[in-house]
Each structure stands twice: as C-alpha cells, then as structure tokens.
Amino acid sequence: MTDAEHTTPAAPITQDVMTIPRKVPEGLPNIIGLTRDALREALVAIGTPEKQARMRVNQVWAWLYHWGVRDFDKMTNLAKDFRATLAANFIIALPEVVSKQVSSDGTRKYLVRIAGGHEVEVVYIPETDRGTLCISSQVGCTLTCSFCHTGTQKLVRNLTAGEIVGQIMLARDDLGEWPEPGTRKYDPRLLSNVVLMGMGEPLYNFEGVRDAMKIAMDNEGISLSRRRITLSTSGVVPEIARAATEIGCLLAVSFHATTDEVRDKLVPINKRWNIETLLNTLREYPRLSNSERITFEYVMLKDVNDSDADARRLVKLIQGIPAKINLIPFNEWPGSPYERSDWARIESFAEIIYKAGYASPIRTPRGEDIMAACGQLKSATERARKSRKQIAAEAGLD
Ligand code: SAH
Ligand code: SF4
C-alpha cells in the first residue's frame, strides 16, 4: 500500500481536514507543558512577586487545563496588564491537527503535526463504559520490534511534555469536552482514559512523559486519575521503578513471548534486559506504585508465540505477579513479516490463561478500516523507513 492509499479512507469513513491556523508570535516559549513548579518559576521570571506566585499559578492553570482557554485575554480574573505580560512572554500552543478520520466503529484517528513538521498519530476509542485516548510519546522509535509498524521508522525525536499533554487537549477540543467557564465538569467523560500505546517507547522519553502525565493527573485541571492512565513499555528495566515512584500510573508490558529466544526476535530490547530481569523488576512495580496489577500485552502471531505450551509457560513465568493478560490479535500492516493467529488458537490460548486464574481479554481490533489499530500507527510523511527485507533480516526471519 502506498502512503497516498494509506491516508485515503474508503466509505463509510469520513475525513475532515481541520487544520487550525494558530496565530502565534515566533520564538516565545509555550506555556503548555510546564509543570506547576516550572510555571511558578516562569511567572516569577517575568516579574510576578514571589508572594503572589502561587495564586497566579493556580489561576493560569485553571484557565489552561480546567477550562481549556487558549487566549490570555480571556483569563478574566487576571489584571489586564498581567494578561498582556503573559501574552508578551508566552504562547499557548497545541500540536496542529492535520486530518481526522472517523472509522465506521466510531474510532477517531488524528494526524497531528508538531514543530519541525513531523507528524504523529493519536487515536480515540469510544466504548460503552469509557473513552480511551491512545497517545504517542516519540516520532518513530529507537527500538525495532519486528511486528510493529512504528519500529520500522527511525526515531526522529522525543515529543515535549507540551506535545504529549497537547494530544489530550486537542482530543478534548474535538470532543467538545471543556466545560464552559463557570459550569460543572462533564460526567461521565467522553475522554476518560489515556494509554501511552501510540508511537514510541514512553520510558525512553521519561521526563517528557512524566511531566505531561503530572499535568493530566493534576486535580485542578484535566484531572485524570492515575488509575486511568496506562503506560506501555517494551521493557526498559532501569526506568520501570522510576515510573512507579515518579508517575505512579498503571503499567502495561509488551511481553509477547515466553522464551528469550523468541522474545529476542520479537522485542529486541530483550537482548539487553531478558525475561528474568524484566520479571524481577515487574514484581516490585505494584508495591512501588501502589497499583493493583500489571497488564501483560501479548500479540498473537501465527506459529510464532501462540501454542498451548506458550500459554502454559506464560502463566508459570508470571506466577506471583498480580496480572491481567491482554491478548492482541496481530494487526497486519503492509509488508509485515507475520500473520495473525487463527481465532480458535487465540481462544484456546486465552482459555489456558483464564483457567490459571488470570483475566485474559482478547483485544478487539478497533478502527481497522482507518489503520488505527495498535502497532499500525506511523507517520505518513516520514521517509526514513526500512525495507521489508531489512525488517525480516533483523527479526532473524530470513
Ligand atoms: N512502545 C511501547 C508502546 C507502544 S505499542 C511498547 O512497545 O509497549 C502498544 C502495544 O501494541 C504494544 O504492546 C506493542 O507491542 C503492540 N503492537 C505493536 N505492533 C503491533 C501490531 N502490529 N499488532 C498488534 N499489536 C502491536
Ligand atoms: Fe517501539 Fe513499542 Fe513498536 Fe517496539 S512495539 S518498536 S517499543 S513502539
């Protein structure tokens, strides 16, 4: 499939191009993405008296993250000259939405452009009891998991905290979910959960992800509970304990194999931190983060990792770890070197895990008609891609 085909959806998908022009002065720092502490420092640096700083942070914060206001002049409880000082020193900028596609199942995929002209994808998945936003943390990825489309792209750069929390904000814009100043919060929320399962390895952009999630979890703003945010990692062991103490959200791990031999091929970071090392670290996570359980993601690849013996090994390996196993039917992408396991195979695998006492939901692929499913995200404009042959060779498949 070519890039052009990739972004041209077939009926019944709708696509609106909603490029939002933002009139922003060049060169000013973005106020979006500053943590409370950083915002305080920034306000003091532009002349806010120390004694007032705390109150000013609270006021500006509420406008930005509770009411979703994008114009300093609308911050009506601030003195006019202070609003002007803010406007002279900062911009309020979000990534620019280049296009939006809506799947027949209601899934929305946004292609967003960030500084430098790079693009990442953001996916909103509505369900009956929740609405989940899947956000990206990097343009491309340094890792090269052989079944992942993003892994075929080189890392371009880390997203800033503003660009990460900005994805949540632009989705709330599109969903019309900012309360009118003076009114109550929306309940239930359309955007109730966030998963860091888009493009990139979140733990290789630790500070950006941490600061963005702190903003998203702040009670006075977007106010998502830490139990409604799930960070998915391929297994960057040294950063896992840090994520527990410094972010405290739920953790998902791209496990995908039950022997080092197979995991080395699927998730090459396993050569650095193998299954045993990873599991030892995971055992500590629930205590350190005070969370209930870890999600083990397991992509179902035909004849690669989907046997009954694999399922039995899996439950043995994770013994003692409070866990849920999320089985992901492989989402094929153009040139992918694997096939999705048959449905009966996936069910038989799930059954073994379930009987061992673990929840084993099979993830329903969503938004397949717009290539919005897990692991299919990519940036249509990034040309630095590997060939199919190279992917297969690195996966040890040739
Ligand atoms: N980099 C992080 C988060 C992004 S990927 C990580 O690897 O965990 C989110 C999930 O989708 C991961 O479990 C990933 O392994 C999985 N995934 C990647 N490509 C996939 C594909 N083509 N089909 C199904 N799942 C895939
Ligand atoms: Fe990167 Fe995750 Fe894809 Fe692996 S699965 S290449 S870590 S985005």
Tell me what the structure shows.
The chain has about 400 residues and is α/β, with parallel strands linked by helices. It folds into 2 domains: about 5-15 and about 95-395, Aldolase class I (TIM Barrel), CATH 3.20.20; about 35-90, DNA polymerase, domain 1, CATH 1.10.150. About 35% of the residues lie in helices and about 15% in strands. It contains 12 helices and 12 strands. It has helices at about 5, 35-45, 50-65, 80-90, 160-175, 205-215, 235-245, 260-265, 275-290, 310-315, 345-355, 390-395, and strands spanning about 15, 95-100, 110-115, 120-125, 130-135, 140, 155-160, 195, 230-235, 250-255, 295-300, 325-330. The strands form 2 sheets. Strands 1-2-3-4-5-8-9-10-11-12 form a 10-stranded mixed beta sheet. It has a two-stranded antiparallel ribbon with strand order 6-7. The two termini are about 20 Å apart. Iron/sulfur cluster binds near residues 150, 151, 200, 234 and 254.
